[in-house]
Design goal:
With 285 residues, this protein is α/β, with parallel strands linked by helices. 42% of the residues lie in helices and 18% in strands.
Length: 285
């Protein structure tokens, strides 16, 4: 497995110091977010920037775990859904363009996005979602890219069983899951249950820290909460996962008045790298 960090934590920072900082800490990989509010938004990535970022990654020996356009695929307003769908397709094109930068795990490039919706939507909207996911999967297949959609507490798909039941209906092999165990943790599901059920569908992961149970939970910086990273990593290895463990910092943390994105990355690396060592798992790079 590899240790990565998502730029979700730092939407306003230029990518060059972010890459330099993550590489200096010792991270193996980076997940680059491309939504409009980020410095690496798709529309900000002109031809020169699309060449410069790969050069920076190579110079710093940092690889890509994913590019992310986290947008809801269950959006019901036609114009908004069309925007979301097309934005994800454009992100697939970027992943294809950058494919030689991916961590060398033998897998296609990964694009992260989301299911969306709200609790109770599954019965009425699941057939439409399956159709949409298969259509996007066809597009991703044509470019040998994998789509990893994320379940989320407070969204339509917020339990392991709901997520697995959806994935069993999707035919495209290019459609998989971005397995963020924190959303299952705060719903009261055990590490062992979540890992065993989701690993067959997991193309990418997120981890953070957390405290409490939904809806009264908190998402935290690694090391601040109750998540057992060692047990999680050992379970992931036991179930055959060999990809990236990408650290994500939630909006709950980013709204803190004293939030410092680079210091948070430093703390995250300290906690996660120690967890790998304590779990007896050698990172690959």
């Amino acid at each position: 497995m590899y240790l990565g960090f998502s730029t979700w934590a730092m939407p306003d920072l230029p990518i060059e110091p972010v890459i330099a900082h993550l590489a200096a800490l010792g991270f193996d990989a980076i997940e680059i977010c491309t939504l409009p509010r980020f410095t690496t938004a798709l529309d900000a990535l002109d031809a020169a920037e699309r060449k410069r970022i790969p050069q920076l990654l190579r110079e710093h020996n940092l690889q890509l775990s994913a590019v992310s356009s986290y947008l809801p695929m269950m959006e019901q307003e036609p114009e908004k859904f069309a925007f979301n769908r097309d934005y994800v397709k454009r992100t697939v094109d970027l992943a294809d363009e950058w494919r030689d930068l991916w961590i060398p795990n033998g897998q296609p490039p990964v694009v992260v996005s989301g299911f969306g919706g709200k609790p109770g939507d599954i019965a009425a909207l699941e057939p439409q979602l399956v159709e949409r996911l298969n259509a996007l999967g066809q597009y991703a297949e044509s470019r040998n890219v994998t789509l990893a959609f994320e379940h989320h507490v407070g969204n339509a798909y917020e339990t392991p069983d709901q997520t697995v039941a959806l994935m069993k209906q999707v035919n495209s092999p290019a459609v998989m899951v971005n397995f963020d165990i924190s959303h299952f943790n705060v719903m009261g599901h055990s590490i062992e249950e979540s890992v065993a059920k989701l690993i067959p569908y997991a193309a990418h992961t997120h981890v953070k820290d957390e405290l409490g149970r939904a809806p009264d939970h908190q998402y935290l910086i690694p090391g601040e909460g109750e998540f057992d990273y060692v047990r999680y990593l050992q379970a992931m290895q036991a179930h055959g996962y060999r990809g990236a463990i990408s650290t994500e910092i939630s909006m709950m943390v980013q709204r803190r008045p004293d939030y410092d994105a680079l210091a948070t990355a430093t703390r995250s690396y300290e906690v996660l790298s120690r967890a790998f060592a304590d779990a007896g798992i050698a990172r690959r790079s």
